Amino acid sequence: MRDGVAPTVTVVRACLRDGAGGSPTAVLPETGLSDRERRAVPALLGTSHAVFVSLAPAGPVSADVSLRFFTTTGELPACGHGTVAALAYLAAPRETTGGHGDALGPADHSPVTLRTPGRVFTGRVGRVGREFRAAFDPGPVTVREPAPDETVPVLRALGLDADPLAVDAHVATLGRPRLLVPVSARSVLAGLAPDLDRLRVACDRLGLLGCYVYHGPTADGRVPGDSRRGRVAARMFAPSIGVPEDIANANSTACLAAHLARAGTTDLTVDMGDALGVPASISTTVRDGDSGPLVEVGGAAVVDRVVHP
Questions:
Q1: Do 211 and 199 contact (CB within 8 A), yes or no?
Q2: Total H helices, total E strands in the chain
Q3: Where are the domains of the chain?
Q4: What angle do CA 269, 273, 274 make, to 5 degrees?
């Protein structure tokens, strides 16, 4: 690291399911590292992503926060579970994180202004026991039907070219486009073993971030008596950004929520990570806006460990 001094890193498990699992995410204060050094952090900590956090000049009680997200391949314009992790990190006690803890004051779900290189948006976080419950506005989502040449190479790489539901894939854009792919059975989802090299080539050629494959919601996945609510299982493959499979992907879940809201599902819970042995869950709500669906996405998080230099 710069000048031979490594920063203190807090590892937060974001998007827990019933208090377990969650995606380990490295969170650390902005310290002026080079982009090459930032890319090294996930590999050094054994996480898929790293989030760099800086507070506005107003001081340590400021609720104005800037975020940058990195994988081993480079910077991302956004990261949903990374945002959940950053909000938990900022609300956790300072003695727990060794960094910007307590920056938000009492964790009472009051709004927090979040800034990334591409946009300014709002998040909130509250504490329930040892967990932090965070949610945020991921931004506008657009969904469209793809052309055949946008799906065929991707479905072949996924091994889904014969699945009867996969042909109903859609391209959803939230910052970057990704392919939402439904499958006909939970067992199909669990058994996926994509050709990751072939998938990376196809996604790179089409400009896709990756592929979000899901099963549901079905009649079994809905809350009895309330057709607005659904529960889905999903897997996210993104080899183009150095993440063969994501434990939790909140922004792609927000894309799916916007897509399913057109059929009346306004409250959605998505389970991920089972194929990796690390359960995770992400929750969304959708309401109508003047220019399209307004999505809020979030999950529970805990501080897992602090790595000191």
A1: yes
A2: 7, 17
A3: 2-137+300-307, 142-290
A4: 100
Answer whether 68's CB lies under 8 Å from 75's CB.
Answer: yes
pTM given for the model: 0.89
CA 12 to chain CA mean position, Å: 13
User: What CATH number should be reported for the domain whose range is 2-137+300-307?
Assistant: 3.10.310.10
Question: Which residue's structure tokens are 């389970």?
Answer: 271
- 4 HSE (CA, 13 A, CB side): 0
Q: Which amino acid is at 308?
A: H
Give the CATH fold of the 142-290 domain: Diaminopimelate Epimerase; Chain A, domain 1 (3.10.310)
pLDDT exceeds cutoff 50 at 227: yes
pLDDT in tens, 243-262: 999 999 999 999 999 999 88
